[in-house]
Amino acid sequence: MKNKIAPSILSADFGNFARDVKHLETAGADLVHIDVMDGHFVDNLTFGAGVVSALRSQTSLFFDVHMMVENPEKYVDDFAKAGADSMSIHVEATNHIHGALQKIKNAGMKASVVINPGTPVEAIKTVLPLVDMVLVMTVNPGFGGQKFIPEMMDKVRELTQIRTDKKLNFEIEVDGGIDDQTIKVAKAAGANVFVAGSFVFNGEVEKNIEKLKEELMEKL
Ligand SMILES: O=C(CO)[C@H](O)[C@H](O)COP(=O)(O)O
Asked: What does this chain do (predicted)?
C-alpha cells in the first residue's frame, strides 16, 4: 500500500490556519489530518464542520477528519457537506459503530474506525470488511506532543495479518508521537498512513515532511 504522510493541523498556527493548510500541498503532504474534539470524548476542544468548510477552498488535498467526539454519527452529513473526504470515528464513542460507518459511506466519504490505546483489535473485528482504513492511536487522544506508545505495534501487526488472511483492503494509519524514528517502527509493523503534528510543524514544514519520507524509503 502507498505510504502517506498526513500532517495533523492540530499543531498548525491557528492564527494563520488557512495559510498553513494551503502550504501543506507544496510542502509534500499526502493528506490533511483534521482533529475534531468535543471536550467530552477528550479533554480538549478544537473545531467543527464550519472550519473544515472554510479550509476546503485552500487546498485540493484529501481531508482526513478524525472525530474525537461522542456520538459522531450525528455530524456525518455536516462534515460531508463541508468537504471532508474521509471520517474516522472511535469505536469507544458510539453504541452503533456498524451503522455509523455505513452512514459515512452512504454520505459519499471513506469510512475509518479508530481504536484508543486501551482498546483491543477484537473490538473492531466485525466492522473490518466495511472500512477503508483503521486508525490505531499511538497516544491517548486529546493533545499533540505526546510520546509514541510502542506496544501499539502489536495491534498494527495483528491488523496486517487479519487483512491478509481475510483478503481485505483497509489502510492502517497511526497517530501520535510520530517522528523520524517512530515512523520506521510503525512502517515495519505494517502501517502505511502516518499522522504527524508536532514533528511536521515544529520548524520548516517542507524539510520535516521530506525527512519523514526519506526515513520511509530507508531499508529497515
Ligand atoms: O489525534 C491527535 C491527538 O489526539 C493528534 O493528531 C496527534 O496527537 C498528533 O500529534 P503529535 O504528532 O504531536 O503527537
From this structure: Catalyzes the reversible epimerization of D-ribulose 5-phosphate to D-xylulose 5-phosphate.
Q: Which of these is catalytic: 35, 38, 64, 179?
A: 35
Q: Return the C-alpha cell found at 28.
A: 509534500
Q: Name the residue of 146, 147, 149 whose CB sits within 8 Å of the most ligand 1 atoms, as the mutation to test its pocket.
A: 146
The answer, yes or no, to whether ipTM is higher than 0.85 is: yes
Q: Which residues line ligand 1 (CB under 6 A)?
A: 8, 10-11, 33, 35, 66, 68, 139, 141-146, 175-178, 195-199
Active site residue 175: yes
Name the residue ranges covered by the structural domains of the chain: 4-217
**pLDDT tens for residues 162-198?**
999 999 999 999 999 999 999 999 999 999 999 999 9
pTM: 0.97
CA of 75 to the centre of ligand 1 (A): 21
8 Å CB contact between 3 and 194: yes
DSSP assignment of 91-120 equals GGG-S-HHHHHHHHHHTTSEEEEEE-TTS-
Ligand 1 centroid – CA 166 distance (Å): 30
CATH fold group of domain 4-217? TIM Barrel (3.20.20)
Distance CA 152, CA 16 (A): 34
